[in-house]
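Lecture 7 notes. Example A: sequence first, then its structure tokens.
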Amino acid sequence: MKRTTTSLALLALCVAGSTAQAQTLTRATSYGTHTVNRPVMIDSVNVNNQKFTLSSLLKTAYKTEGLKGTSITAAKSGFFALPQPTRGASTFSSYSFSLISPTFTKGTLKLFGRARYAVYDGEELLGSNEETLSESDTVPAVSIPLTLIATNKDLLVKVLATSEDKACADFKLVFEPEEGLPQLDLQAVEEGVRYINWNYLTHGKRLYYSNVSPSGKYVLVTYSQRDPKKGVTYQEIREGATGRVLRTTQSLYGAEWLPGEDVLVMHTSNRAGDQLVKIDPLSGRSTVWIDKIPSESFVISPDKRTIYFYEEVKGPEKDKQLIRRLSPDDRQPGARDRQELYRYDIATGIYEPVLYGHHSTSLFDISSDGRQLLLGLGTQDWQHSPFDQTTVLRYTPETGRIDTVFSKQFEIASAHFIPGTEDVLVMGSPNSFGGVGNTLPNGRVGNGYEHELFRIHIPTGHVTPLTRDFDPSIDQIEYHTKGKAFYLLANNGSRQSLYRLDVKTNKITQIETKEDVVRGFGVADQGNTFYYFGQSLNNADRLYSLEPSGKSKLVWDISAENLRGVKFTPGKDFVYRTPDGVDIDGWYYLPPNFDPSKKYPMVVYYYGGTIPLDRVLETTYDLAMFAAQGYVAYSLNPRGTVGYGQSFAADHLNAWGTKTADDIIGAVKAFVAAHPFVDGKKIGCAGASYGGFMTQYLQTRTDLFAAAASHAGISSISSYWAGGYWGLSYSTVASEGSFPWNNPDLYTKHSPLFNADKIHTPLLLLHGTADVNVPPSESTALYNALKILGRTVELVEITGEDHHILEPERQDRWMQTIQAWFAKHLQGKSQWWDHLYPKTPLDM
């Protein structure tokens, strides 16, 4: 049978079936052509009274998963040639096509050909020509409206041909974008690459824990195979010496190493009740250690004779009609409940309270011999900011002796025994212990979120500050028995670094690592095995072992797996020096196909609160993701964040954006001046929580930005102080010593709501309707004000979500909303926004 597709017909197709923007997809993966058989006709119809049609074979579940495909290229005409079926036979062929759109586009996918075709997106049938075969090469056999939202998508084309067909089954695939919308990125398809997008950020592997067994023989590694709806968490048992995987399972989540043994222990529940079971790490064989445990939250004593359990005790119930507030925190769920500590003796089964009273109890530490406890009592003093106080007791259960290590100190995070001494190591703030660790001049108060270390001699109560001249802020502490030292993980500016504290000399030394941001670590208590994992600006997670020599050995390169085929420009540093000589740490990414001769819009992301942004590739407001959409993407840590020293962090106090805004505005202007490829009239900014406040506040200070996005932002400092669950406690730092009655200017002149008339930047406000941290009314108030003022503003509420947007579908639409807002105002492309939020007659 001769092919009926002629050169003249192909020419007609190019003219009639395309526009100036139309693109022919010429690269595909073929999964072969196979002969298919018609079913034996036992009956003339099926159970639904439907007659058999040949085209129904197209819908048969032919799977391509696991099949090895072959990359093929279309002929110059754009057609893919299919073999002619032999007489009396039918053939089925399948092809996958990668459609890559770094940003939003919309158009029509047209399939030209004269056989039977079906186009699928996963399991979803997008279009088919069923039994009606096209008579012409100039009229599409299948036309499919197609919307691509910053994605890499694979479509499957199924082809059914018979020897009775009058024409060959060759086909051609053409995409025609709507006027003004981008084409597909066929260059990326040709190169076999993809870009970092929201799908990339929510899928793939991510490390969470690396717990080393007491001897160092094994490492328990926990990671997830991320998928918002079908994600799975795995645990691996690895050999400590080599990192070799010995076993993979999904049944060890929450397991921990038994003190002094290379045996796992974990809580399980069954019909008989709650149990603690011991688990052999290699075989997975479990045995019941303790039956019918009283609580799920527990700490095992190092001597394995005692287990300490936490129990939540319900306080007085609130009246269902009239509620008398007992304290400013009484509005919070569980504010009247208390945490009690119980001691369980394994040998006798005796279960008894450790302390009795109406204050919550925390078990900070257990001595290495199991004989003493460090207990924390939480109290509140509403006449003295920052209100929450901690008393630490040393308790000896055998004798009942209690020694007060210190009483009613503010901003205490943790306390640890220092083995072999009468000392304890305490993590607090520069203000703890009367400010003995405070290095700030003129009596300035330190940032309460800045974590310092103190050594306290229990018999005398003498406090020695260990980190007065140490700029990083301590985040995690773990004692290493064999090395007689503490290992520290600390915020080191935009990095997270590892350190070692020698308890003999009090000297802190940094441990060299291969990653900018160490996200977790584990050390063998009785051995030398040390594991850590993290990532940097230009790579995803990697797992390392740290040799005794100090050399890092790469054990698992998840980054190589996640980034296979991913294209992005490596992130670079940009440090801005303020007029008063302070260096502001920053970094940025350029678009993947960057052309220095072009002008690009820019997106700036910041937090501005007390916690610094990290130099990592994978984050929520991901710079590489925005860069892939055609932006220069820039982040910075302005003054007020911890990890850069006490003075830098203290600029957060009583400022509410003053120096932070100056730093952001100055840094952005300096960046634009230093990089001529940035379009200085098309700069957008975004932030969440305190960063959302900063986004709003910035627009009252400058007209630098062409668009802004504020998620869960604070518009009125006084209403947040009153309405947010943590508004009062956070304000003890951000508004240290200042209240609406003694410093009203701080609460009004720094509140965006009270300066709404100064805002002219198109502003997107986003808020979860169930946000208890920053109430939704914060965005509503500013939205109302800007609507009254006639300014460009949008408010998008995410139903049922709290401060963080976590439900997968809502999270996806939330991120699209931000991206579409910037596309509209920075790239002049409103179609994405209009697709998400079509105009209605009620738009005002």
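Example B, a different protein, same format:
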Amino acid sequence: MDNENLTRDEAAARSQLLRIDAYDVALDLRNAEDPQETGFRSRCAVTFTCTAPGSSTFLDFISKSVESVTLNGMELDLGSAVTGARIRLDGLSERNTVIVDGTALYSRSGEGMHRFVDPADNSTYLYTQYEPADARRVFANFEQPDLKAAFTFSVQAPSSWTVASNAVVDRREDGGQDAGTWRFAPTQRISTYITSVLAGPYHRVSGSWQPMNAAAPGIELGLYCRKSLTASFDSEEILDVTRRGLTFFSDLFDYPYPFGKYDQAFVPEYNLGAMENPGLVTFTEGYVFRSAATAAQYEARANTILHEMAHMWFGDLVTMVWWDDLWLKESFADYMGALAVAEATRWDTSWVSFANKRKAWAYVQDQLPTTHPIVADIPDLEAAKQNFDGITYAKGAAVLKQLVAFSGFEAFIAASRSYFRRHAYGNTTLTDLLDALADATGEDLSTWARQWLQTSGVPTLGAEITLDDAGAYASVTVRQEATDPVTGKEQPRPHTVRLGLYSYDAAGDLVRTASEQVTVSGDRTGVPGLIGVRQADLLIPNDDDLTYAKLRFDERSQATLLTAVDRVRDPLARATCLAALWSTTRNADLSPEEYLTAVEHAAPRETGVGVLQVILANAGTAVERFSPPAARPALRRRYGTLLKKGLMASGQGSDLQLAWARALAGAARTAGEPTGLLRALLDGDAVVPGLEIDAELRWMFLQALAAHGLTTSGELEAELAADNTASGKVGYTLASAAFPDPAIKRAAWQEAVHGDQLSNDLLSATIEGFTLGGIELTRPFDARYFDAIGEVWQRRGIEMASRVVRGLYPGHSDSDGGPDPSTHPAVQATDRWLAGNSGAPRALRRIVIEERDHLLRALRAQQAG
């Protein structure tokens, strides 16, 4: 549809002209259970004021049709008023009311009003998802974050359903013929993208939370999931985390939870981990654990719950003016989620998980050609959609952790409290936060912000040492390398870091023997406090993971890590070192064989299941993507042996055992040798004591077997009949597309690229299955990919198109032995497309550019390895 891509300039002009008072939105969902009905009635009345009477503006509405538009009592001519996704409003008065009556579309992409039919019982479920700008797929509105308003929703739906929204139900009316109408109370002033509606036969669990201030009113809590998931819904655990979080944040921010009730819904086919709709937070139902789940999965769920809760203040109460400052909510929520898990729940490994996994996402994103500052340049909505990335979330959170080390936690929290009080229910920019920080710290942090928030790239920190004759440090200097890849300029940043010294104790473990905190400035900073200290076996330049930087170890420390990283006793120090080794491998400064050797030492002794999962996955990537093709068979055998031994040696029924089993299934997708064990485990011909082969593991095993042609469509159909669930259907779809059969690959390609019947989850499963089974089967589609992606982007919404463009990129190619990876056929094909499509949408070009870089990195590593 035309006119979908709102620009920043257009939004700024509209915000200068308008102030929105209220929305009254009526949705008729009574036909949702009829699969032949593609749309639903949407009626929206908006009241607003205009600073320049007589001027013009426009509403946003991506719809099936518009039946009528009435402005200040006058019905508009639809032929001239409606153009694509915009409704033009001319001749505005000082005070205005516009009413738009139209038909919106049900979605299968997770955008707008998503409709899902549960294969377990054929029940129909609806939920909305809008960020950054998909409320306009459900009702007409002014779709930008700084035009806040109060929203009143009215929903007609089958009377047996549960219906929820941001606010409490004001009244419910019987509509007759098995239908009802739910009328909700008005919300506080919020942005369009965080409004929400939930409708369907959801299972609901009720609870409550009482603030520590006994005089304050209690908060009603609600949890929702599909009926067929009720048996797996550990609602008491979720409610416990919720109560702990509300207590923690209300006290920390010294500002009561501002949105009345607190509902949380776990919904099917969700595109995100969760969304911070005030009063009705939505989550992927992947957090309802149908099969065995590890402690790391429970911790990750708690992190997401608390991340979204932090948004009630950072993002919902106070919202960025435009998407340039997306970090003002996402970076803070990412940091606060990790902090709250560490401080308010039973999990004590939150910062280990952050160092081990979350920051790794940021390091990858920040080394792509498309890197950008944390405070990004977002000219339009397409750019905004692409910026929900590792820089905005994880790098921003890591930089906030550094800010806390730099300025102090108390000052940081004082600034946050002031920020909420000054800007409640309003919109802000970077300047507003800096003003609050300046008041709290007594310092002008604009230079710090420019160095950290308005530059790009990952700095590298390393310790350069010299020794005296007695083997003690004669000098220790922290060397910083920091070039902004966007500008090409040197951009050293201030780092408050702790240098940790670790040496072997009597038990053979590496323990901290000394540390020194220092503020790094410029490219070289001396550390006089370590002069005269005996050289340690390991010197960590970023002990306690206080800053955001890649690490370069001195020669002795590097040798220690390659043979004894498992001996680092402190979990956070160990995770920091393992992450640094992986970063070095990605940069082709450490060979895949060397990294695998380090993992062979580390993995069998690793006690943290989250860390184990990450290093095993990294080892698989090192073998399959970064190792030279000639060396890969031997490395596959070593990796397979490591996984089998780890599986057999891990504790019976333990989280670690489950992690080893999942890694083995993942490795078997490409390496054929482990498939024999998987087949035997499925058939009952082999038993690993304590390992339950539940539904999730069965599908993982079958997907690996299908990729090698070691199962049949009949076996997959029988498995689906036994597991006729949403996740079972996804597992079946992936396995069915994985067979090493040209006809199956053609069918999968046709459905993914040219079809329109797959929902978002099933599209991803089809794409993933297509990529399995051997590169020789997918290579014939490489040229077709570049012929198709322009049309895919034009025909499909950005969510589904992004899955196709990213997932089907021919990036699993191996080095062809040429001296220059840029001459590889897949790289050259990409370059030809980029050169010939300079006018393609920026978001499409960004995906292609990023995938090209991932391929080039792999090819360079293969050559270096």
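Note on Example B: The chain is about 40% helix and 20% strand. Residues 597 and 800 are 39 Å apart (CA to CA).
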